[in-house]
Cytidine deaminase
Amino acid sequence: MALDLTAEHKMLLALATKAQKNAHAPYSNFQVGAAILDENAQLHASCNVENAAYPLGQCAEAGAISAMIASGSKQIKHILIASPNDNFCPPCGGCRQKIAEFADTQTEVHLATKDGQLKTVKFTDLLPLAFGFDKE
């Protein structure tokens, strides 16, 4: 694991990695976990869930967002996506737009590799000019 991780990063990484282990990915064998820290300092996590009737599966980020909304929170402060290998796993286009719904200009997206290397980007750099993103 990278030595320069903050306590927040470590919590998000641990939660995303735990969720990742429960991913249902029998078709791609690509297990992804995601964890969110919301505006109330609550944590939410999920994993990808594939379905034989593609594209009816759900990405880890979408599941974590659903868990956040179900808890009553409305804003993503940080989201971490845990990759199952040595490459960073950025959110797909659909998830970028889903994140935009609950992000602001300060929202950070953390990408983690299997060995704990971390890359952080501002959401606005990940999806500039997002549809409907007129916050702040």
